[in-house]
Amino acid sequence: MTDIVDHHKLFIGGRWVEPTGDDTIEVVSPVTEQIVGRVPHATPEDVDRAVAAARTAFDHGPWPRMTMAERIAVVTRIKDTVAARHQELAELITLQNGSPMLFAVRGQALSTVGVLAMTLAAAAQFEEEHERQGTGGPVLVRREAVGVVAAITPWNVPQLTIGAKLAPALLAGCSVVLKPSPETPLDANWLAGVCAEAGLPEGVLSVLPAGRETGAHLVAHPGIDKVAFTGSVAAGKAIMAAAAQNLTRVSLELGGKSAAIVLDDADLAVAVPAIVGGTCAANSGQACVALTRVLVPASRYDEVAGALTAAFGGLKVGDPADPATVVGPMVTKKQQERNLDYIRIGQEEGAKVLTGGGVPAGLTTGWYVEPTLFGDVTNDMRIAREEIFGPVVCLIRYETEDEAVALANASEFGLSGAVFTADTERGTEVARRVRTGTVTVNGFRLDLAAPFGGYKNSGIGREFGPEGLSAYFEYKSVNLPA
Ligand code: NAD
Predict the structure, then answer these.
(1) Is the minimum distance from the CB of 385 to ligand 1 under 6 angstroms?
(2) Structural domain range at position 131
(3) Tell me: the pLDDT tens digits for 366-389?
(4) In 12, 115, 153, 384, which residue has its Cα 20 to 30 A from 264's Cα atom?
(5) Distance (Å, rounded) from C-alpha 232 to C-alpha 38?
(6) Cα separation of 423 and 430, whole Å?
(7) Do 416 and 327 belong to one domain?
(8) pLDDT tens-place string over residues 89-117
(9) From start to end of 66-137, where are the E strands?
């Protein structure tokens, strides 16, 4: 029996303080269905306190007035602590969302270290201002911190999505009010402790675990200059509409329904493990970048279907703490039901279950779903159009390369994708034609040094690397005397 991780205070303005409300968030293990953590539920009043502290820190405090080098020193300490304690972080994430340990260490904790490191590297190269010759005289072009940032994050990759906002915001000199998802408040509070120890000045960071009402109050707050959001399309639209009232800047990292295009010359020894890695093995399929539509040439359909059926059927499903587990439980019962509903819908639509299709035998406690491969899917089916967010994958036939590209692009989303081929040049050419923010040739990769984000309904803006850092600055032109 795990001890319950119990928090009684909220981290507001850099200090642990009494919450204004009485509500508590209970974190329930997706494995045991038992309570494993409790934190105070932040209220709109707590938001007001946090925004006031953040405003004071930004408008009058030392943080934005420090040099980049001074801020780099503090963020480096945060990165070093997360790196040194990454195993503890991975275990805390798994405790809350059931992420398989293999993925929790690499895809969650070490990726967070990676995003911090890559943002630090970009900051070290950052040019704050330069002079150029304008039309009427010299102009000093400056980049200044955007201000107070509201960061709103999901439960599936909770620290990576926090790190992708916190690192550039802090390095820019912003102050941050973070609202993590109510499913994963514990790792966010853990990070608050790490940031406090690293010497972040008063007011610069607040962490407010809460649901969407408190989040809605935060994004509509006139004291916020930018909202950085990762989550669903529906919430992204609501946030953008709310932000419009104050013309608050927004960046949105939303969902996906990405295509893996298997070309007719693809090596299945490369494609199959990458597709498994980009679907079921990526956080049990609960990944925005998951390659959930596999596009297969009709001439090789049976071969690919057979290889993927065998691969999916052989995956170890079970306790995420077991390092051999590839597919753990869904985060909540609601997510398990959502997956099972889509599996039923797919069958009603005429798709054929090639493997999986239900709850794994013997795993009735915890919210498990079998790795499920659907064959005979057409791109107009709901299972091919809507984000399922679990280990459920569609196989879709195509005849020509042009049709494959058209199918990949026939989606409301545009986040990720992959092309598999024996010819890298051909794969790169196809990748150029796919309308998504990231495409990998012969693999599945999220590169923490390259811009990441979505076309279409997958979002607005980019995170990671220099482009992710840039998103936390405004430009200013100072026209100098001619
Ligand atoms: P969600 O949209 O339900 O919630 C995300 C966060 O937004 C939570 O903290 C939630 O409390 C908050 N929220 C919801 N409505 C809000 C509102 N109106 N105002 C303010 N805050 C609000 O998403 P989820 O279920 O936690 O996460 C899964 C979704 O996130 C999937 O669609 C997935 O694709 C997406 N995601 C995208 C990326 C990416 O980088 N593109 C990464 C991870 C997850």
Answers:
(1) no
(2) 5-254+458-479
(3) 999 999 999 999 999 999 999 999
(4) 384
(5) 25
(6) 11
(7) yes
(8) 999 999 999 999 999 999 999 999 999 99
(9) 129-133
